[in-house]
Design brief:
Blueprint lengths: L1 E5 L2 E5 L9 E3 L2 E3 L2 H15 L14 E4 L20 H8 L2 H8 L8 H8 L3 H5 L2 E4 H10 L4 E2 H4 L5 E2 L4 E2 L1 H7 L9 E2 L4 E4 L2 H7 L6 E3 L5 H7 L7 E6 L3 E7 L6 H5 L3 E4 L5 E7 L3 H9 L5 H9 L21 H11 L8 H27 L5 E6 L5 H11 L3 E3 L4 H13 L6 H11 L3 E3 L6 H10 L3
Parallel strand pairs: 7-10, 13-17, 17-18
Antiparallel strand pairs: 1-2, 3-4, 5-6, 8-9, 11-12, 13-14, 14-16, 15-16, 18-19
Helix pairs in contact: 2-4, 10-17, 13-15, 15-16
Length: about 450
C-alpha cells in the first residue's frame, strides 16, 4: 500500500497484492515466509519512489535466526497443533491468575509464550541466537537491523503492560531466555534504511528509511479509528478484536475470567479487547462452498430470519481450518437450536453470532474497565459487510460508525508520517481521518431484548 499524507490530506492506494498461503509440511503448519518476502519486494518495486517504509503483520508468530543471522526454517503458523496442552504445563510454573496479573494477556493457545514452551527441547530452538516477530523479521531482511517493536511484543505474553518492558519473572519461571529478543523499539522509532541489495532489486533510490510502526496490525488499525470521546472499537477481518482504548491495563481476576487482553498501543495507550473468531468463520465456509459470489450470499443471508440459530464465535472449536459449515451445524444441533442447512442460513448464523459476540465484548469491556461508551467504531475488512455492521449496531444498542476499511495500512502510514513531521499527535491523526476517509453510520434498530435471549441460548456470560 502506498500512502500520501500531509496536514490536510491522506490518500491510500494499493500497489501490489500477493497471496499468503500457509503450507502443511510433515512437521506441521508453516508460513511460506520466503514467498511473503518476495511479495514485499515485488510490492516495493511496484510502489515507485517512497520516502519511508513501515511493516505491520499479524501477531505472536516469529522466526528464529542462527548466530550468523540466517533463518532456521519456516516460521510455525499459530494455527499449528503444537501448542495443544502446553498452557497447562506453563501454568504449573506460573499459575494462570499470576500470569494474567503480570502480563494482562488473555489466554490463547497460540500466544508466543506457549509457542516457545512447545519448542523447548527442539534442535531448532537450541541453535537459535535471535527471535524476531514476523514484521521485525521482514524489517531485518530489508535493513539488516534487528529490533522488537513494542505493540507486537505485547502479544507475546512476555511484556508487563504497566512498565511496558519485559516481564522478567514470567520468562524466568517459564524457562524462556529473553536474550533471544532484540532490543525493544517504539512506533515511530527509526528501524534502519533499505539495504543496497534491496534498492538494487526494487529500483528505489536510497537512502530510504524504514520506520517502526504499530507493527501488530491491530495496533495500527486502532490508531486509525477516526474517533474522539467515549468510544469502543471493533477491528474486523479474519479476527474481530473488540474493546476499548485505555490509559492503563485492567489486571483483575474478573477481567482474566472474561478473557480480555491488555495489548499495548500508541502513545502509552492500552488496547483492552477480546479476540473473537471473526470473519474466519465465513471465509472458511466460502472456501468449502467453492468460492460462491459473496454479494449474492449476503443478500440470501439478509432474507433469513434473524437470530434463528447462533454459535459462540469465540469458541476455540472453530480455530482450526476445515469442515466449517459442518462444524457450525453441529454446534447448533448440540445446543438444541434449528440446524442451518443452506449457505444463506449458515451465513446468517455466522453474522448473527459475530454481532452477538461483538455485543458481549463491548458490554463486558465497559463493565470491567468502568469505562462507558456512546458509539462503536468498526474498522477493517468487515466495514464492507453492511449487514454485519447493521447487526452489530442492533446488538449493541449503540450507533456504529464504519470505516476506514484499510485501517491497519492507514495507521501504519500515519505513524510514518508523524515520525517525519507531517502530522501531529494521535488526536490530530484521528481528526485527519475524519476529514479524509469515507465513513458510514448505522443506527440501532428493534431493541436489544432479542439479543439478550440469544445470548442466554449459548449459556455464556
Amino acid at each position: 500500500m502506498v500512502g500520501r499524507a500531509g496536514p490536510d490530506s491522506l490518500e491510500l492506494a494499493e500497489a501490489h497484492r500477493f497471496p499468503n498461503r500457509p503450507v502443511r509440511t510433515p512437521e506441521g503448519l508453516r508460513w511460506d515466509i520466503l514467498a511473503l518476502y518476495a511479495g514485499v519486494l515485488d510490492g516495493l518495486r511496484a510502489c515507485g519512489q517512497v520516502d519511508s517504509v513501515g511493516v505491520d503483520s499479524w501477531a505472536v508468530d516469529y522466526g528464529l535466526l542462527d548466530a550468523d543471522g540466517a533463518l532456521l526454517g519456516n516460521p510455525v503458523h499459530y494455527r499449528d497443533a503444537r501448542t495443544e496442552g502446553v498452557a497447562e504445563k506453563v501454568w504449573a510454573s506460573v499459575p494462570a491468575p499470576e500470569l494474567y496479573a503480570a502480563t494482562g494477556l488473555q489466554y490463547a493457545p497460540f500466544n508466543t509464550l506457549y509457542q516457545l514452551a512447545a519448542a523447548q527441547g527442539t534442535a531448532q530452538l537450541a541453535h537459535a541466537r535471535r527471535l524476531l516477530l514476523i514484521p521485525d523479521l521482514v524489517t531485518y531482511w530489508l535493513t539488516g537491523e534487528q529490533g522488537t517493536e513494542l505493540t507486537n511484543a505485547s502479544t507475546t505474553q512476555l511484556i508487563d503492560p504497566r512498565t511496558r518492558r519485559w516481564a522478567y519473572d514470567v520468562a524466568a519461571r517459564s524457562g524462556i531466555d529473553l536474550g533471544l529478543f532484540a532490543p525493544l523499539r517504539q512506533p515511530g522509532d527509526p528501524a534502519g534504511v533499505l539495504r543496497p541489495q534491496v534498492l538494487e532489486e526494487t529500483g528505489l533510490r536510497g537512502p530510504v528509511p524504514v520506520t517502526a510502526v504499530g507493527s501488530h496490525d491491530t495496533a495500527s488499525a486502532v490508531a486509525a479509528v477516526p474517533a474522539a470521546g467515549r468510544f469502543a472499537y471493533i477491528c474486523t477481518g479474519t479476527w474481530s478484536l473488540a474493546g476499548l482504548e485505555l490509559d492503563a491495563p485492567v489486571l483483575t481476576e474478573e477481567s482474566r475470567e472474561a478473557n480480555f487482553t491488555n495489548e499495548l498501543g500508541l502513545d502509552g495507550t492500552v488496547r483492552y479487547l477480546r479476540n473473537i473468531m471473526g470473519l474466519w468463520l465465513l471465509q472458511e465456509c466460502v472456501r468449502a462452498w467453492g468460492d460462491p459470489d459473496l454479494g449474492a450470499l449476503l443478500r440470501e443471508a439478509a432474507g433469513v430470519p434473524a437470530l434463528r440459530s447462533v454459535v459462540d464465535a469465540g469458541d476455540a472449536a472453530f480455530l482450526a481450518p476445515g469442515r466449517m459449515p459442518e462444524r457450525i451445524a453441529e454446534a447448533c444441533r448440540a445446543s438444541g437450536q434449528p440446524v442451518p442447512g443452506t449457505p444463506g442460513e449458515i451465513t446468517r448464523c455466522i453474522l448473527d453470532s459475530l454481532a452477538l459476540a461483538h455485543r458481549r465484548a463491548v458490554e463486558d469491556a465497559q463493565r470491567l474497565a468502568d469505562h462507558p461508551v456512546d458509539v462503536v467504531y468498526v474498522v477493517g475488512g468487515g466495514t464492507r459487510n453492511a449487514l454485519l455492521c447493521q447487526l452489530t449496531a442492533d446488538a449493541c444498542g449503540l450507533p456504529v460508525v464504519a470505516g476506514p476499511t484499510e485501517a491497519a495500512a492507514l495507521g501504519n502510514v500515519l505513524v510514518q508520517a508523524r515520525a517525519h513531521g507531517l502530522v501531529g499527535d494521535l488526536a490530530d491523526m484521528r481528526r485527519l481521518l475524519v476529514r479524509t476517509q469515507p465513513l458510514t453510520r448505522y443506527e440501532p434498530r428493534g431493541g436489544t431484548a432479542r439479543w439478550q435471549e440469544a445470548k442466554a441460548r449459548l449459556a455464556v456470560r
